[in-house]
Amino acid sequence: MNKRIPPLLVAAMLATAYAHGDLKPAHGGVIAEGKQVVVELVVKTDRLDVYLTDHVKAIDAKGASGQVILLSGGTKTEARLLPAAGNLLSVQGNFKLGAGAKAIVKVSIPGKGEDQIRLSLP
Questions:
Q1: CB-count burial class (<10 Å; 0-12, 13-18, 19+) for 54
Q2: What span, in angstroms and rounded, lies between the C-alpha atoms of 79 and 102?
Q3: Measured between alpha carbons, how far is residue 98 from residues 28, 59, 66, 117 in Å?
Q4: 64: domain range?
Q5: How many domains does the chain have?
Q6: Quick check: 98 pLDDT over 90?
């Protein structure tokens, strides 16, 4: 039995693997891909912002909702995300995170469903 993979099949597999390219944050945050959406989490001392995209274009946050769970230094903080403008979900609060903090972003988007994305913060 011939165990060689035809070059055309290899090319097709590589093209699929790199179809979306590198994820690069557009707002200076941390970016990660879920099953339905790509999120960029921007942490500020007084606010958390979550930008929604589908790799290329913004996803309208109107009607969307979400939650952020922050894990930092043995402390767990939960915050509810609300639509702010365009593709932005946001929440006001006091968010001080230590090095190595983690975040779980849960979003519900009309027409796309629910998604949960885990992020590691710098």
A1: middle
A2: 14
A3: 18, 30, 23, 20
A4: 24-120
A5: 1
A6: no
